[in-house]
Amino acid sequence: MAEAFSLRCYCYLDRMQPQYAAFVGTITQGDLPTEGMAALYVEMAPGNEVFRVVDIAVKATEARPGAQIVEREFGMFEVHSPNQAAVQEAGSVVLDRLGLRLEDRIRPQVVSTQVITRIDPYQAQLLNRFRRGSMLVPGETMLVLECAPAAYINFAVNEAEKKASIKLIHVSSVGRFGRMWLSGSEAEILTARDAATRALESLEGREGA
Predict the structure, then answer these.
(1) Which of left, alpha, beta for 106 (phi over 0: left; psi -120 to 50: alpha)?
(2) Are residues 42 and 123 in the same domain?
(3) For the chain, what percent of residues have pLDDT higher than 70?
(4) How many domains does one find in the chain?
């Protein structure tokens, strides 16, 4: 029996921030985004549906695909463009073709937040071994924020960078949970945490797993 389609995440980024855009450029296997572009992230189940949905999005507008990922349970894609209207139109076309509304997405939930002050040098070295963003420096304060569905973490980190002077260490947006690691002064990290949390809580949708 075929698994019912589920729109897990639908989030629009109006303007990619400098560090966030640079980070995405280190991990994307598709078209490279740059600072200031608009982007759309869509996550769905079953995962294989992502191939059909990406095809719909890129045929309809000038928005270019940066990511098309299928993992064990879910599929996720990202499209971007310097033209905000093109990205918004790509999202509208996808929703229309799927017979869905924005309210059919799962509402994001903050699963956990941790603020760790005065990072130890050994812990900084461990984290720096797998980071794709800035170096974590001993003595800084670090924020670890986790949300579900995973792809919403892209919206959260982009909004955090808008509001706080922080360093982006790493972002993971595939799987059951999305996670981000930011560092900076304690005051800026608290500002970033609050901005990311407010951003996620501002998105409407249905309750889901």
Answers:
(1) beta
(2) no
(3) 98
(4) 2
- Tell me what the pLDDT averaged over the chain comes to: 94
Q: Residue 153: which H helix or E strand, with range? A: helix 153-163
pLDDT at residue 192 above 60?
A: yes
Decide if 41 contacts 154 (C-beta within 8 A). Answer: yes
Q: Are residues 140 and 116 in the same domain?
A: yes
- Supply the DSSP symbol for 129: T
Query: What CATH number is given to the structural domain containing 49?
Result: 3.30.70.1710
Report yes or no on 1 lying in a domain.
no
Domain of 55, in residue numbers? 6-104
Asked if residue 50 belongs to a domain, the reply is: yes
Q: pTM higher than 0.90, yes or no?
A: yes
Q: Which pLDDT does position 1 carry in this prediction?
A: 41
Of 104, 137, 155, the position where a domain reaches its end is 104
- Distance (Å, rounded) from C-alpha 63 to C-alpha 31? 10
| Of 90, 197, 208, nearest in space to 145 by CA | 197
Q: Residue 2: pLDDT above 70? A: no
Q: What is the CA radius of gyration of the chain?
A: 17
Q: How far is CA 180 from CA 51, 89, 108, 139, in A?
A: 26, 28, 15, 19
Are residues 115 and 100 part of one domain?
no
Q: What are the tokens at 134?
A: 């800035």
DSSP characters for 12-46?
A: EESS--HHHHHHHHHH-SSSPP-TT-EEEEEEEES
